[in-house]
């Protein structure tokens, strides 16, 4: 059962928090991350965004926009395309963990586009034992999600989109936890709602430019439970707001800068009251007394709205829950790309801080991208160290034209 603890740890690694309420600042220095189910849904699946600090709400539309902001697909160039990505994950902690991602799009007409994707997250092999260290068997935990999306232009500059997602999470293979209820795979459905605005072109010192803004609220859906009648866990509902500036320096060189702000839209854990001996204090109905914060055992929609006002440390802690990402992309001859970025999360909300680098090569039919992650935290060994992503994109329209020739 020891590796089950790792799954719980991995869940915490990808979490964060909420917004407002005046309570004592005594809680601000406490580690207080939000734990949700299926955190793999928040992992950047593609190398382009991964090389730019995990930005994507308003970057130039591409084959993987369904993850970052589906409404961007209404502005994508080309008629159809496919992308596949592979990411070895947390290799410094446990081997054999990886994320595989496949996505594609098809333009329906000049105003609308459909897309689909599949992601598969493998957690390696876990060996189960009882309290006497006797083997109960082994299992390879896995999680996957299937997405379908539709994007439509409402004007020449503005689009909206929606993605629907089926989520499957099998962490135990049905093996019973000793002394507990039988386990089962968790399933749920999630919805993304997004919008995107792309300005008309304008000039900055005789250089052609445009700016864009995007908003994506993702993974809104029912909670997941791994036992019948057991505890239910929120999906990693997330709000992402982003901006992008793109500029053509000349006929051969172009540059873009993007910035995203993220926030998990799930309840923040409260601080529970304890007595002088450190034991929990309970109300008459058996619930634990909350000293600061709000009760997290609420429904999905209430949890989303509550996430802006339930941090035990008040407004300052709510601000600490915001995650920031910034990235740049440089293209030469529209064939060679160089990318860099930075991601920041507050120390009390997960402490993910890292720089990213990457390159891209665009050919007639194929494009190849690679990204590398460099931890920015000092004095500790980061489980995110040495994370490398690979993505291959296929331009189906160009391939079809080549076959006709």
How are the elements arranged and paired?
Blueprint: H1 2-13, H2 47-51, H3 65-68, E1 80-88, E2 97-107, E3 112-123, E4 126-129, E5 135-139, E6 142-153, E7 158-170, E8 186-198, E9 202-204, E10 207-221, E11 224-225, E12 232-233, E13 238-248, E14 253-264, E15 271-272, E16 290-292, H4 300-306, H5 315-320, E17 323-332, E18 336-344, E19 353-362, E20 366-375, E21 388-395, H6 396-404
Antiparallel strand pairs: 1-2, 1-21, 2-3, 3-6, 4-5, 6-7, 7-8, 8-10, 9-10, 10-13, 11-12, 13-14, 14-17, 15-16, 17-18, 18-19, 19-20, 20-21
CATH fourth-tier homologous superfamily: monomeric porin ompg
CATH class: Mainly Beta
Helix-strand sequence: HHHEEEEEEEEEEEEEEEEHHEEEEEH
**How large, in whole angstroms, is the Cα Rg?**
22 Å
> What helical percentage do the residues reach?
10-25%
CATH topology: Porin
Largest sheet: 14 strands, antiparallel, barrel
Q: Estimate the mean pLDDT confidence.
A: 88
* Spatial separation of the terminal alpha carbons: 59 Å
Number of helices: 6
**Record field, number of beta strands:** 21
- How do the strands line up in the largest sheet? 1-2-3-6-7-8-10-13-14-17-18-19-20-21
Uncertain runs with pLDDT below 50, 5 residues or more? 1-23
Which structural class is indicated by helix and strand composition? mainly beta
Tell me what portion of residues adopts beta-strand conformation: 35-45%
Shape: globular
In the residues, how many domains can be counted? Answer: 1
Q: What is the architecture at the second tier of CATH?
A: Beta Barrel
């Amino acid at each position: 059962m020891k590796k089950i603890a790792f799954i719980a740890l991995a869940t915490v690694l990808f979490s964060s928090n909420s917004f407002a309420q005046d309570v004592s600042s005594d809680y601000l220095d406490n580690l207080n991350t939000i734990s949700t189910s299926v955190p793999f849904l928040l992992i950047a699946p593609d190398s382009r965004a991964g090389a730019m600090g995990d930005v994507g709400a308003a970057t130039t539309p591409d084959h993987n926009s369904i993850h970052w902001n589906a409404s961007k697909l209404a502005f994508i160039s080309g008629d159809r395309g496919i992308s596949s990505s592979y990411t070895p994950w947390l290799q410094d902690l446990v081997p054999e963990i990886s994320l595989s991602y496949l996505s594609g799009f098809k333009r329906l007409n000049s105003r609308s586009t459909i897309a689909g994707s599949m992601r598969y997250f493998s957690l390696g092999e876990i060996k189960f034992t009882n309290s006497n260290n006797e083997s109960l068997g082994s299992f390879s935990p896995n999680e996957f999600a299937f997405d379908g999306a539709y994007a439509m232009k409402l004007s020449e500059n503005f689009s909206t989109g929606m993605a629907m997602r089926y989520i499957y999470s099998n962490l135990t293979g049905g093996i019973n936890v000793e002394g507990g209820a039988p386990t089962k795979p968790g399933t749920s459905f999630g919805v993304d709602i997004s919008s995107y605005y792309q300005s008309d072109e304008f000039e900055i010192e005789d250089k052609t430019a445009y700016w864009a803004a995007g908003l994506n609220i993702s993974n809104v859906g029912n909670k997941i439970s791994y036992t019948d009648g057991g505890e239910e866990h929120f999906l990693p509902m997330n709000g992402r707001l982003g901006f992008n500036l793109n500029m053509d320096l000349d006929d051969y060189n172009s540059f873009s800068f993007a910035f995203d702000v993220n926030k998990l839209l799930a309840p923040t854990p409260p601080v529970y009251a304890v007595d002088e001996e450190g034991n929990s204090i309970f109300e008459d109905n058996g619930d634990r007394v909350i000293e600061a914060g709000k009760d997290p055992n609420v429904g999905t929609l209430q949890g989303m709205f509550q996430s802006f006002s339930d941090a035990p440390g008040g407004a300052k802690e709510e601000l600490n829950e915001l995650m920031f990402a910034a990235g740049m992309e440089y293209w030469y001859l529209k064939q060679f790309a160089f990318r860099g970025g930075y991601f920041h999360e507050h120390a009390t909300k997960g402490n993910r801080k890292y720089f990213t680098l990457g390159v891209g090569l665009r050919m007639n039919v194929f494009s190849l991208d690679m990204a590398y992650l460099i931890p920015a935290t000092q004095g500790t060994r980061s489980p995110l160290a040495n994370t490398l992503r690979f993505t291959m994109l296929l331009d189906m329209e160009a391939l079809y034209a080549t076959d006709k020739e």
